[in-house]
Amino acid sequence: MFEKSTWIRLPRNVVVGHGVRSSVVEVVDDLHLQGRPLLVTSPTPRQVAAEPVAADFEAAGIDPAIVTIESATFDSVETVIETAEAEEVSYLIGVGGGKAIDIAKMASDHLEMGFLSVPTAASHDGVISNRGSVPDGNTRHSVAAEPPLAVVADTEILAEAPWELTTAGCADIISNYTAVMDWRLAKRLKNAEYSEYAAALSEMTAEILVDNADLIRPGLEESAWVVTKALMSSGVAMSIADSSRPASGAEHLFSHQLDRIAPTAALHGHQVGVGSIMTAYLHGGERGIWRDIRDALASIDAPTTAAELDIDDETVIEALTTCHEIRDRYTILGDGMDEHAAREVATKTGVIS
Ligand SMILES: NC(=O)C1=CN([C@@H]2O[C@H](COP(=O)(O)OP(=O)(O)OC[C@H]3O[C@@H](n4cnc5c(N)ncnc54)[C@H](OP(=O)(O)O)[C@@H]3O)[C@@H](O)[C@H]2O)C=CC1
Ligand SMILES: O=C(CO)COP(=O)(O)O
Ligand SMILES: [Zn+2]
């Protein structure tokens, strides 16, 4: 008997472009959302976008509530839940980088309310995804959550954000190459659940971004457009797979481990990019695509070395040799790298000196 089934959850409206911040109220109307929104934001995005969005609601005769969170923690999720209940809001709007959007996503899941995603940085592919990522004990990776009802990505705001946030988003996309290699390996060796459509979309997204690398330049709004479309496409791949597998392999394990052990972690996208150089080497050796990944990262000003991440060499080795333990996800790291092998791959790829 045929027993396969799939349920792909995606936003209904995705609005990307110059000045679309002022469309948030219209998008809410189009979704037939009633009542007050709670804007969930963090300090800088509050000034950049949440205050203007709140003013747009007020002008439309809707009184929005607003809560500012400082850190990606379950205490922040709790604060948002309490505020939503106290203010008697009907839906949430996450306005910010990955932190604010993930907190809004997790809180809306708990509250069984819809939420909208309004990114202020093109820094990660969780903007549209059905994954939420809030550190929980020793866990740093994402978990299943609701996707946003809509995404409103204003390229004017995204282009004015610090350039390194955009290069982090690019690196998060470039790392899809190795994520998909790991996924295929896990399918071959461990019969991991696999979606050819999601894998193809994820790889194609990385390819289109790399092919358009010459359009990705500081101060160019076209860059925000190219990167944001790629972030959306990668997030959709995760939703099709109902897993972060298409966009997260061993390079993400490496980054999650750095978040735990490095005294000051770098941006998520930058860490996974450097991880991807090394895991590409592990997949293909000298003749593999690791140089292409490194050169693509370098061409858009993303870090390619531990020094550029401001992380010391020994922390890189510790993360490489221990990160296979942090999640039940088979990758090229198998049951772990020994220290000599880790030092070799990190040195040969120039990640450490
Ligand atoms: N759910 C998912 O599927 C995914 C989730 N993620 C998660 O996303 C997070 C990474 O997101 P990231 O955006 O890098 O992290 P943050 O949200 O912490 O943002 C990084 C920094 O950028 C600042 N910022 C944001 N927008 C602007 C702006 N327009 N101008 C100036 N500064 C700005 C923030 O300010 P401030 O300090 O004021 O907030 C913060 O200091 C990680 O936690 C990662 O795990 C990543 C990929 C997928
Ligand atoms: O960052 C992600 C995809 O880019 C999400 O992956 P994780 O599930 O590893 O957190
Ligand atoms: Zn990522």
From TrEMBL:
It is found in: Cytoplasm. Zn(2+) binds at residues 172, 252, 268. GO terms for biological process: glycerophospholipid metabolic process; phospholipid biosynthetic process. Keywords: Cytoplasm, Lipid biosynthesis, Lipid metabolism, Metal-binding, NAD, NADP, Oxidoreductase, Phospholipid biosynthesis, Phospholipid metabolism, Zinc. Its main location: cytoplasm. NAD(+) binds at residues 98-102, 120-123, 129. Pathway: Membrane lipid metabolism; glycerophospholipid metabolism. It catalyses: sn-glycerol 1-phosphate + NAD(+) = dihydroxyacetone phosphate + NADH + H(+); sn-glycerol 1-phosphate + NADP(+) = dihydroxyacetone phosphate + NADPH + H(+). Gene3D superfamilies: 3.40.50.1970, Dehydroquinate synthase-like - alpha domain. Its EC number is 1.1.1.261. Its cofactor is Zn(2+). CDD domains: Gro1PDH. It is an enzyme of class 1 (oxidoreductase). It comes from the Archaea. Belongs to the glycerol-1-phosphate dehydrogenase family. This is Glycerol-1-phosphate dehydrogenase [NAD(P)+]. It comes from Natrialba magadii (strain ATCC 43099 / DSM 3394 / CCM 3739 / CIP 104546 / IAM 13178 / JCM 8861 / NBRC 102185 / NCIMB 2190 / MS3) (Natronobacterium magadii).
